[in-house]
Amino acid sequence: MNSVILKMAILVLKPLFLVVSIWLLLRGHNYPGGGFIGGLIAGSALIFEPLAFDQGSGAAKNHTQPLPFLAIGMASIFISAMIPILNKQALLEGLWLKGAQTFLPASIKVGTPLLFDIGVYFTVIGFIYLIFTTIMEEWQWK
Amino acid sequence: MIDQQGKLEFFWPWMTSIGLNLHFILDGLSLIFALLITGIGAFILVYAHDYMKEYAHTKRFYFYLLVFMGSMLGLVLSANLLLLFVFWELTGISSFLLIGFKHEKEHVRKAALQALLITGFGGLLMLAGFVLLGIMGGSYDIQALAVQNISLAEHHWYIAALILILGGAFSKSAQFPFHFWLPGAMQAPSPVSAFLHSATMVKAGIYLLARLYPALGGTVEWHTIIPLFGGATMLIGAYLALTQKDLKAILAYTTVSSLGMLILLLGIGTHLSIKAALIYLIVHAFYKGSLFMVAGSVEKSTGTRDIDKLGNLARKMPITTVVAVLALLSMAGLPPMLGFISKEVIYEAKIQAPGIAGYVTFFGVVANIFMVWVSLFIAYRVFFRKSYYGALPVKKTSFSFWIGPGMLALAGLILGLFPYQLGEVLIQPALGDITAENLKVELKLWHGFNRVFLLSLLTILSGIGLFLLRDRIIPVIRKINRKAFDFSFSDLFSSFLEWIMKISRLNTELFQHGYHRFYLLVMFIAIALLGWYQLFQLRFWEMDLSLQQMSFSTILIAIIMLIATVFTLTSKSRLTAIISMGVVGYGVAIIYLIYSGIDLAITQLLVETLTMVIFVLVVFKLPRFAKLSSKKSKIRDGVIALSVGGFMTGVSLQASNLNMKSPISDYFVENASDQAFGNNIVNVILVDFRALDTLGEITVLLIATLGIVALLKMNRS
Hints:
The structure holds two protein chains of two kinds.
Chain A: H1 4-27, H2 35-52, H3 67-86, H4 112-139
Helix pairs in contact in A: 1-2, 2-4, 3-4
Chain B: E1 8-15, E2 20-26, H1 28-51, H2 58-77, H3 81-99, H4 106-137, H5 142-146, H6 149-153, H7 158-172, H8 181-184, H9 190-199, H10 204-216, H11 220-242, H12 247-268, H13 271-302, H14 313-316, H15 318-332, H16 338-351, H17 357-384, H18 400-417, H19 419-435, H20 451-468, H21 470-484, H22 489-511, H23 516-537, H24 552-570, H25 574-594, H26 598-619, H27 631-657, H28 665-675, H29 681-689, H30 691-714
Antiparallel strand pairs in B: 1-2
Helix pairs in contact in B: 1-2, 1-9, 1-13, 1-18, 1-19, 2-3, 3-4, 4-7, 7-10, 7-11, 9-13, 10-12, 11-12, 11-17, 12-13, 12-17, 13-15, 13-16, 13-18, 13-19, 15-17, 15-18, 16-18, 16-20, 17-20, 18-19, 23-27, 24-25, 25-26, 28-29, 29-30
């Protein structure tokens, strides 16, 4: 796909999508949003570039690697699941850091569920990004 | 810690929720087994040092051997049935690894697998029995079960539990009809045969029966089933030992016979017979462990175990011969060996067996006559025969080859001369543990000239007589065997295995054909059939449909979706089809929005968009669109699609009508803010209330991703 409009639009769209996705992720506990939706949007942001610029050439190598997203995502989920166990509570029990509320707006709450949601966010990004880049690299899609 | 009765106890909670704890108790019965395992194990390790020298991977061998030793100790010390099962299976696995130690040869692998499958299968039966027993008694603690013998025996599951547990005990202890794995296990190196397959592991079944006697024993079933199988095994083992040519095979079949005898004695279940079993257990471990090691030494120095080729070793291997003769004397039950004492006690127990005394005494004498014969036969053939074909060169063997068997054989002699201490220190506490009574055990070498002694005399004389007439009798036996036993259990078992493999291959070909479209077809047909059955059960035609509640906008969107669906099906271009599918998806998203499921709507929109993008990417690489399906297959696919869709519709409609319990959503709504600290209920459910589900879903996502990547990369090669 060789579209000048898309190429230029990406300069604005990619950061915008990423910011919106993080906003959705953080507000998710109280308002519509959350890790899954945020992850889908951030994943879309990341696939703009491979879509707009021809892949399959050397360009792919300079891009962000998809696998670390999956690793970070699963690691956050694992950590958020294990923290309550170290605290002698049930697996995945929600633990909140209420002291952090003095520095943060009321809509953002820090705790293991947030870490869990961040894990979901990264895993979903990795999922979308990995599949797209693989399709493009392997099938020499242009 | 040590409790009042002088038992060593160790308790460590493990999985308390299913009643599985690391609970070990060392009492009298465990002590006998623990001493046999560690004592004989020490001699085996000394013996193996030189025996295993020529083999590769000896470190691995010692590792397996010590794993076995540890798990066998665990087995006899466990005070918890489930823990006992864990160790039981561990002994089976280490036995598999040891039998298959020379794994380069196919028949060795086969024998190892056969032993593993039979004992493993038995172990599973036993586990089922344990679970039944645990439910019946309300505990997996053996001591807790032991005190409720009567209530267990009257429970209507008693017979099922008993039979299942016996399945485990019989398969481990090589009882008929599972006996054939033991001779097969002789493919293992001799130290293994001496340790696992004569002295310790095959006694696990005996241990189990002795251990559970307080809980399960004393019933009619116990006194009927167990002696029956034990007796049959005793006779069959002794009989089959006669015609073997491999020295280790002869010993293996006599081991089968001895195990049968032990089971028989436990089945009789009088105090005397249990005492006899305990003594015989020790005697047998001593002489059979020793004989197996002797057989290994003979093989190492001459290069063969074939009794037709062996002979006159008395002059070339004098020390080994002395050891062997001592052990064989014990096996034949001649004074002054411990074997004599045990045989006297066994005869006494059989004569006094309630109800079945006549049978068990007669068959016991027959089996013992065979034992005497086999003992004489081995001694003559291997060590004292002057004339034989092909004098084999004899290599000198080192000290470690006879010290182990020598000590064991000597123990049989010394304990035979001074049996009193053995009885008082080891047998008496163990007997007390099994029978729960304080009985005095006094063993003596000379019991006086009574009917038991007469039976012994008859046994020995008949054995000698049969041995002298061997040239006439053995051909007759061979002839009978050729006619009556013209099959081997081992072959039957392997053809049974092949049959299973054949079935599973057929099954695989039927269901795992590798055509994606047929997989989908099968899945959808199954879903539709099961689903429709359930809908009919719920009488779906009676449900209350209140269509008037639908708003105009919803109906409009539904109509758009229907049109888009029809378009998808009839379009001639893939791109059009994909876009009209997208329209359906967006329609669903809008319906979510109308019913104020904002999170769902956003997710649906995003997923739909991404799916379409992926579709478009992939479609360009597909071959040109063509109509390949015939009319017939189209109708078939249409019918299946309609029935699945109809079922889904039915379920969705039915779901709102079914209110079996108050829905959990109320709970979520009430507690999301207080307990989970959040106002967006969907998200709270995802990351807090039902976080475990999300964890599972996200894991599936990850696995699916890796699967897709693997499939795409496969294209490269």
